[in-house]
Write a structure and sequence with these properties.
The chain is an alpha/beta fold and 660 residues long. Among the domains are: 123 residues, Beta-Lactamase; 320 residues, Rossmann fold, CATH 3.40.50. It has 18 helices and 26 strands. Strands 7, 8, 9, 10, 11, 19 and 21 form a seven-stranded antiparallel β-sheet that branches. Helix 15 packs across helix 16 and helix 15 packs parallel to helix 17. The radius of gyration is 26 Å and the shape is globular. The N terminus is likely disordered.
Length: 660
Amino acid sequence: MGGRPKWLRWLVPMAVLAALFAFLPWLAGDRPESESGGERTSSGADAGEERRYKMAAVRRDAEMTAQLCTLECSKEFRALPADADGGQLRRLLAHHPHMAYVRVRARGGGTTEAGEMPKGIADWNAHLAKAEAAAKVGRTYVSDPVRRNGSRYIVLAVPSADGAGTVSGIIRQDIVDEVEQRQFKYLRIVPYPAEGRYKIESARPNSTEDITVRTGEDNGAASHYHANEAVVRFREAPTEAEIEAILKDIDGVSVRRVGYAHVFTSRSMETEELIAYFRERWNPVYVEPHYLYLANGLRGKFPRGAGGRMDAPDRITAADGDGTKARTADGVLKARADEDADGGAIVPNDQFYGPYQWNLPAIGTERGWALSRGSDDVVIAVLDTGVQLDHPDLRGRIAEGVNLVGEGDPEDDVGHGTHVAGIIAATVNNGEGVAGLSWRGRIMPVKVLDSTGSGSAYSVAEGIIWATDRGADVINMSLGNYASSEFLHDAVKYAYDHGVVLVAASGNDNTDQPGYPAAYPEVFAVAATDAADNRAPYSNYGDYIDAAAPGDAIASTYTGSRYAALSGTSMASPHAAALAGLIKSVNPDLTNEEIMDIMRKTAVDLGDKGYDMYFGYGRIDVRRALEAAEQTANTLGGFPVRFERRIEALRHRFGLGMAE
């Protein structure tokens, strides 16, 4: 967000400005004011062309997800020796439930097996024998998919780890259908959410004017709200007796409070009637619909060869273990001096990194890791569908979280939140899966979206406040709605005033209609780019965009201890959130606005020169941002401010009060 009106700049003498820029090179960049006073509309491809593009993406998504599943299973099979026992196989199946059946055959004739062959096909053994024949001569065998009883299966076989036999199995690839079905919603090919699931109404943004969403394209001009609810912020908090009287007046079912606001639910009154009642009787600060917020992810296409690239001669491959790690006194993980002496990059050994993760090298991450790989003290909250808490590639990276839309732990029942979390913090250099942007730091899973990928303004606002009160440094929100909610904005301002960096996805409807929370001035709004640094065709745009980040065909963690390639501004946003965490690891004394300014000022300019509505200030760059953060940490001009902050922190810790 821009911190000062443009006219104020001209009141400051140029000499003073020059001095300021010498000591504070990363001052805030104002977002340009909107020059359009009319209704915002979608642009780009017509509806038919856009639908064809999205349908093609669905097919590519399914193909790519199947490939990731096959590669992961192949790696696990190749780790088994010919003398593997039944216990090893059973543990493998328990860890990978999509493996229906596995058997190991030694050349001497011994066979060990676990699991069950799916019913409905009598000749599974014939399929397995064909696969094992290929594996005996050193080849990997992958069958065409077979469908039985509503599931998709493949037969897979590889040579055993010691070359003394074969490992074959039957793999259930239901993830392919799962991703395909959800993509129809997240790519907005079908109306989403379906009206009726929550007694939801679709309306024109910032109004209760009813509209019908018949096609996916209609989503770009609609917001959604709960039909029998209203959110109210009173000028004075009502007493219990007044609350009871209100519930009687509105035929109320319930009332919930979060922050300054109350959410009232009526049995019989609709939202417009509730709004009229509160305005007439209570003269509130505001009363508005209870809006619904939706995940902004797309199940993503993965261009063939998108991640393939030749290794540069100055890249340094990170070794296993702690041999390449050196820690500073404040817990920041840094590269060893011999790694970054020539500015060389650090390339991790994660299985899918080289062939598929084009996104991290594209934003200067490998060279940025030579400056910092994160801090154990940094916590990034992911407000989403939850996170798979025991995913092997997120082991040790999960902080305490909360489920605000149901009972129990904040487990992910969709996959969206787990994918977002992996982009930020998947374990790096462990030889498996994918690499996250940060080697250190923790993810705080805050489940605010349910199994449909949607949640209310109440759950999102509650999640923001919950994460803020429990020490989150950064909050990522890969979700949105086209209506500006004062209720949600109150929660955003609460977090911002407490120093939290808030990052949000712009949306996936290829429209300049502002999406919220991304368009709030306190939030860092992120658009999506592809592997060629073009704007992703679905990415929303407008004068509220701060920067862009990779969002097309991003490989990351997924539920069921699996991996998937997804696309969307939902995937772009966590790149920026992770970068905010890395910046804070370099200089913990930076304010949230200073961190956002660094990301803006160090972005690589794309599109029209300077700020533009498609890329904001440009595509984020990890190396440049961390260099800028180091400069702020080392500059003499920043010392008095940092010293004062540390003194105040010590006063607070020891109960001495604030300095006069």
